[in-house]
Amino acid sequence: MSTRYEKQPPAFYALIAALVVMSVGPVLLMFVNSFKLDVDIISGTSGLIFLPTIQNYETALCDVLWYKPEHVDHCSLKFGNAFINSLIIALVSTVLTLVIGCMAAYALVRFRFMGRDSVSLTTLMVRMVPPAVLLVPVFGLWNNEFCIGKTTYVGAMIRDIFGGRGDVCLAGTHSGIILVYVAMNLPFVIWILQSFIVQVPRSLEEAARVDGAGPFQVFFKVVLPLIKPGLAAAAIFTFRIAWNEYLLASALSDRNTKTVPILIVNNMSEFNVEWGVIMATGMLLAIPPIIFTLFASRQIITGMTAGAVKG
Predict the structure, then answer these.
(1) What are phi and psi of 215, to 5 degrees?
(2) Is 147 helix (H, G, I), strand (E, B) or coil?
(3) Is the pTM of this model over 0.90?
(4) What pLDDT, on a 0 to 100 scale, did the predictor assign at position 151?
């Protein structure tokens, strides 16, 4: 049995080619420039014909390499510390967002209470608020309202153990950034998981209750296995948002908790811009989300197609 394909007009293939170039082009350009010296990048005359070098990657990874690169006099970049910070913040915020989000979505779908529709609509409206709008109030709250005074017993004990002279605030800590990311991504997770939970037949939950399963057993053993595609899709999008976010992290982090996006921007100064190092750090920043997406690509496709059709 032969498969016959409908012939498409040339404009269709031109549009596909343009979309591919727009998607892959910047990544390919960043990858190529990461192996160039700054003089080759700025001149723009070398193109694809140049002598590759790994100096940019050695400069970016100077704090984690087992040897000291000859061209690096002082290792100012702390990529290893920033990478660990990004990994901790992205993973912990993703896990917390999924745990809270799936329970909240289940409650909004299965339980009947006053204002349920308003709560569901409000979660979607909150997701429309740009993160830049939250920057000033969150920074003020994290630096003033949610602080443990240095004169209190707990604050004095923390300062005696970990050092420092001021109040203990959420700003500049992993916990503060994680809480902001959870609050920022939670409406999206709740909204996307509701469409998956709606498709779970109530008869399965009722049958489990007849067999003696409690509410938590029904949720964890019946509902969660059936919405794995939705959890996978929500986890990937949430992880990517938390991994690449810069604006809120730049205001709430300090030198010990800064993430990789902040490290890349800090590498640009008024007098010097190391384009090669920026491109190399950008490629290193892109590796974890790409690997995570490739491993879960099947779940992403299944989750997106299943969530697109609401029963």
Answers:
(1) -60, -45
(2) strand
(3) no
(4) 66
**Total length of the chain:** 311
Which residue is associated with the tokens 């003089």? Answer: 39
Query: How far, in Å, CA of 254 to CA of 97, rounded?
Result: 24
Provide the β-strand partners of residue 268: 273
Residue-wise pLDDT tens digits, 127-139: 788 878 888 888 8
Torsion, CA 80, CA 84, CA 90, CA 94, rounded to 10: 150
Contact at 8 Å (CB) between 35 and 52? yes
Quote the CA–CA distance of 290 and 230 in Å, as a whole number: 19
Tokens encoding 13: 């293939």
Distance CA 213, CA 146 (A): 41
Between these two residues, 217 and 181, which has the higher pLDDT value?
181
Q: What is the pLDDT of residues 71-83, one digit of tens each?
A: 777 777 788 888 9
What is the three-class DSSP state of 174?
A: helix
Distance (Å, whole) CA 311 – CA 284 = 41
Could you write out the DSSP letters of every residue in 76-128?
---HHHHHHHHHHHHHHHHHHHHHHHHHHHHHHHH---TTHHHHHHHHHHHHT
The sign of the torsion formed by the CA atoms of 49, 53, 56, 60 equals positive
Q: What's at 233, amino acid-wise? A: A
